[in-house]
Task: inverse folding
DNA sequence: TATGAATGAGACTTCATTCAT
DNA sequence: TATGAATGAAGTCTCATTCAT
């Protein structure tokens, strides 16, 4: 299934994935055209199709890469500290991800919006494992009376929802505030406010 | 701009808008086809196009209808009570909206994801007004020391983000938990947890 | 599965089938292009695709129509007379078919050459039934000592092979003799010679 | 036109021709792809194209090779014996050819079906010569009252048609009888029946 | 001699939209 | 108001062929 990949193959595939992320983020799967992706990737359409058999393969590649980055982000989470430290760090990481992978985040959001036809399986496996683990940690905190007795999954969803919102809905946010996460001040303000509310919301 | 609309026109246009909401939610603007919408609306394609000049008009119609419903939801907010009552009520309303207008919410999300080409203007006007007003109210609370000094817009975004997440990302949520907002118990649990955290997060 | 077919639909579908027969006979399935068929049928490509979903559907339609005509030809065979009359009549019918349905015969030949991917099932059912019946009749003749004891299927194949040859290999025949079945004299000569040899070959 | 050909060239060209025969037989000229041929020949596509300038050249090569083999088969015919011996031997040779060069036979059939654009010239020359000679021999027999007065070319076509039928239509034959020429018993039966009928058909 | 990489031409197919009734 | 029929534009994908090494 996997061809041997030479240096140039790796480079070009990566080029395509990056271009694909950008275009799919902007136009969705159907809206994106191979032409656009090829143009951004700086290669001819048939050459692009030499590396990825068809449009869907590019899309899957983009999704997998994004999901992997996201999973990695979630896994880098240090759970050894206090709940305050840990949650602060978690939110920080997610905000960073939203800022640094805005396009990927949107492709991801689009896929979920359409019912996650491609990602469903992966989400049910890899992501589920991570959520289960986080849930366990949070339950431990609750048992130790370190945080209030809230439902762990909804806390997790809250953090995901908010941080992702700044990436996915940035058009709306920009229209309303004139700012995006790219604005350093705005970024810090958002992170700070969210962290504050969540921490005060759960810590005893 | 407005033609005189006979009874049957009104009925059929509404049929189309509902069908459009469903289909656009599932496949996005480009992914949706007029055929699909016509089929769901129970009329022939040319007949549908008799009511809406082209695909984009249907889309705009759906977006406007959804936005109006959402604005109405936001406006129904009673600001006369205590912050606790008010915020609780606000979150409740938004959760209801997510549950009862899942499809519309997704069409809306999709539009924002793609940069809100159609809605941008409306958002900058109608929604901005509402946000400004809410901001003023929240600032009043802060000044009166009724809630902690947090940045109002980010509080608003948080609430929007979380409640919308349950509609837009329900595929992911369902994969991870097996539940959706249609499940009464899950719905209440989600609403309760979110309300708790936010209230504890902002109240003094 | 079958739509209601209006007059114009029937007419246009038949136009397409005829054009398809001509083009598929000349260029084979892959070699044929929808453009060519549409051109011959006198309609635009998308309009043609309004009647047949894709190229393969046209092909299947052509094959089925040809097979049906052929089966009908085989069934019109009168088995009540003497072997001499019956065989003479059978060969005559097949020769007629080759002359009057040259293009269809070639499409058919092409399909068989490629392994009959589409027709295999039909051949195994309808045609098999006919062959079995013919075989029974021939065996009866043999038992009654009306013809020599030859293997019936090979006799049948012989007749098919020869008559079909004049349609399918007419390019070769024309190169070698300068004539085709369209030439009345040549047609009669061919039919007469073949009938003679076969009759003398099997009659006692 | 002829380059000096090294050992490896000869070997590789032969590999390509064999692969080409197989693939062209299965899919026809347009249906065959160079990739497929290269794969069967066990070499890369550009390497294959180093030996044959383009697809058509491979096709021509295959056709020429097949035609040569066929002509050789026809020429090996011993005309010195009695008509019975000679015809029996001729049919035998042709049956052998069909069994041993099934794929080539089909490529040939395909070419003729499409109007013999490539072979037409060769057929008009080399094959014509052979047919003329055979015709002369048969006419001699008729004049000597050794066989009945039938039209020689149609006798020749009959034999070609029948023997070729077992190669070209083997898909149909297999569907109807479950056998192919590869089955020794079936092969002998077919040859015997055909020989019998033809001999009885022409001998006085 | 051999092969990864690249491309232009062309085919199939979809789909929004219009026509005619 | 309603709909079968028709079409142009556009997009996906294949494939013979060439390039560069």
Result:
């Amino acid at each position: 299934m996997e061809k041997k990949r030479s240096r140039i193959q790796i480079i070009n595939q990566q080029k395509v994935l990056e271009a694909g992320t950008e275009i799919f983020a902007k136009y969705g799967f159907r809206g994106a055209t191979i032409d656009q992706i090829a143009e951004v990737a700086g290669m001819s359409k048939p050459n692009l199709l030499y590396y990825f058999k068809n449009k869907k393969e590019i899309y899957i590649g983009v999704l997998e890469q994004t999901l992997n980055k996201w999973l990695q982000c979630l896994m880098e989470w240090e759970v050894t500290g206090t709940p305050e430290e840990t949650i602060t760090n978690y939110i920080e990481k997610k905000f960073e991800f939203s800022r640094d992978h805005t396009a990927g985040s949107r492709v991801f959001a689009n896929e979920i919006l359409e019912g996650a036809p491609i990602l469903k399986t992966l989400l049910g496996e890899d992501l589920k494992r991570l959520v289960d683990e986080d849930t366990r940690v949070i339950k431990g905190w609750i048992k130790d009376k370190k945080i209030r007795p809230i439902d762990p999954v909804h806390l997790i969803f809250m953090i995901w929802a908010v941080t992702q919102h700044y990436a996915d809905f940035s058009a709306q946010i920009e229209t309303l505030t004139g700012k995006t996460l790219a604005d350093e001040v705005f970024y810090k303000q958002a992170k700070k406010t969210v962290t504050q509310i969540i921490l005060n919301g759960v810590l005893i």
Q: What stands out?
A: The mean pLDDT of chain C is 94. Chain C is about 80% helix and 0% strand. Chains C and A do not touch (no CB pair under 8 Å).
